[in-house]
Amino acid sequence: MPIATVNPANGETVKTYQAMGEEEVERRLQLAEATFRTYRTTGFDERAALLRRAADLLDEDQQDIARVITTEMGKPVKQARAEAAKCAKAMRWYADHAAELLADEEPADADVRDSGATRALVRYRPVGPVLAVMPWNFPLWQVIRFAAPALMAGNVGLLKHASNVPQTALYLEDLFHRAGFTEGTFQTLLIGSGEVDEILRDERVKAATLTGSEPAGRAVAATAGEMIKKTVLELGGSDPFIVMPSADLDRAAEVAVNARCQNAGQSCIAAKRFIVHTDVYDAFAERFTEGMKALVLGDPMDEDTEIGPLSSERGRAELEELVDDAVRGGASVLCGGERPDRPGWYYPPTVLAGIDREMRIHREEAFGPVATLYRAGDLDEAVLIANDTLFGLSSNVWTRDESEVDRFVRGLEAGGVYFNGMTASHPAFPFGGVKRSGYGRELSGHGIREFCNITTVWHGA
């Protein structure tokens, strides 16, 4: 895949970039290793000041970088601005909390004495250069939720971004440099995916984080396992959105539309499978379908647009294949289902009902504004349908019956359970999945400690 900005709204190539050669990649690896030796000795106050400065610059750049994001991957520009604002918020959150999250821990006095020590503590130390392999769908946020905690922990970053968002990738390197971080603290590698394996094998790279597809995750995990290197993987998702009889149906349907179609449905944590109790199935399906049909599809630079194009022609073709397969298998199309007659890689909000386990869309992640409806007879059946997937990123449950809450928390196989609201990442809460959605956690204290050497410091008499 060429490293290029191709506008999804019209298919036009805006700018093409030459991949970095071996000499330039080697220079950057050397720089990362050398910079880490000094950056690791900086204190939290110094790192926090730099990160706050980066947040301030991002706020200043918000309008311009939002237009770059929209041009590169098709996100409606108002959503792109919101993404930039979220990134600045996360940087400030880690600047404010990193020292506390990584403070030395003192074991209980009784345990210290029992170990034969006069004193002991646990210290969190940075591991070194971390390779981040990032996707295009949230081209700022996916990177910042790695970079903010990693830099505050004293690590340095090497970014291999998706090949269709090179301008955003280069902007991120420039942002940190303008904020005052030393040149080698955060670097973008303009390389193809085929170069990732060799870089991960380099002994100077100490760990890796990847957000992306299951095949990409398998490849990175296999190499990292061979090289005995720590990885965090956030892969695909097929999140359930469960609606029970006690739910506020108007609110649930309204949120369901946004949960499925934000970013044109191109989100790992987007709700994709809507599992509705039979007592309220018809009422919810009507409200949800009307909400999906009402969304405004159009030019992503238009402030009124709610659904922009998909990021690539290939992505739209893959989504169409899933819909066509379901229809051939007997699924009903309640709305959408046909590409609009216009330039660009648009696909309309679509609702499918009558899904069965043999359809590909039941087993595979639909990365676009396509929702599937399921009917459940009771809570237990809803949980069974929800767990009938290889993924386990997050989940949404709508109920006002408190007796059901703990049963869902215990029963659902997911990294998060969100009640009466849609899944959304926040710097204070751990984010990640189970099963084929990956392992490890980003964000919160759990995320910042993923790339730390947890060191026991023990003093004898």
Intertermini distance: 61 Å
- CATH C-level class of the largest domain: Alpha Beta
Strand content: 15-25%
- CATH second-level architecture of the largest domain: 3-Layer(aba) Sandwich
How many runs of DSSP E, i.e. beta strands? 19
Number of domains: 2
How helix-rich are the residues, as a percent range? 40-55%
Q: In terms of per-residue confidence, which ranges show pLDDT below 50 for 5 or more consecutive residues?
A: none
Mean pLDDT: 98
Q: Specify the structural class.
A: alpha/beta
Shape: globular
Q: What's the CATH H-level homologous superfamily of the largest domain?
A: Aldehyde Dehydrogenase, Chain A, domain 1
Quote the CATH topology of the largest domain.
Aldehyde Dehydrogenase, Chain A, domain 1
Q: Radius of gyration, rounded?
A: 23 Å
Spatial strand order of the main sheet: 11-12-13-10-9-15-16
Domain Aldehyde dehydrogenase: 3-457
Keywords: NADP, Oxidoreductase
Protein name: NADP-dependent succinic semialdehyde dehydrogenase
Organism: Streptomyces broussonetiae
Structure report:
- The protein has 461 residues and is of the alpha/beta class.
- The chain folds into 2 domains: 4-235 and 437-459, 3-Layer(aba) Sandwich (Aldehyde Dehydrogenase, Chain A, domain 1), CATH 3.40.605; 239-426, Aldehyde Dehydrogenase, Chain A, domain 2.
- The chain has helices at residues 22-39, 44-73, 77-101, 109-114, 141-152, 166-179, 196-201, 214-227, 249-261, 281-294, 313-328, 360-363, 379-387, 402-411, 444-449, and strands at 4-6, 13-16, 119-126, 129-133, 156-160, 186-188, 207-211, 230-234, 239-243, 271-277, 332-335, 350-353, 370-376, 391-392, 396-398, 418-419, 434-435, 438-439, 452-459.
- The strands form 5 sheets. The protein has a 7-stranded mixed sheet with strand order 11-12-13-10-9-15-16, sandwiched between helices. Strands 6-5-4-7-8-18 form a 6-stranded mixed sheet, with helices on both faces. A two-stranded antiparallel sheet has the order 1-2.
- Helix 2 (44-73) runs antiparallel to helix 3, helix 2 (44-73) runs antiparallel to helix 6 and helix 9 (249-261) packs across helix 10.
- The radius of gyration is 23 Å and the shape is globular.
- The mean pLDDT is 98.
- It comes from Streptomyces broussonetiae.
- This is NADP-dependent succinic semialdehyde dehydrogenase.
- InterPro entries: Ald_DH/histidinol_DH, Ald_DH_C, Ald_DH_N, Aldehyde_DH_dom, ALDH_GabD1-like, GABD/Sad-like.
- Keywords: NADP, Oxidoreductase.
- It holds the Pfam family Aldedh.
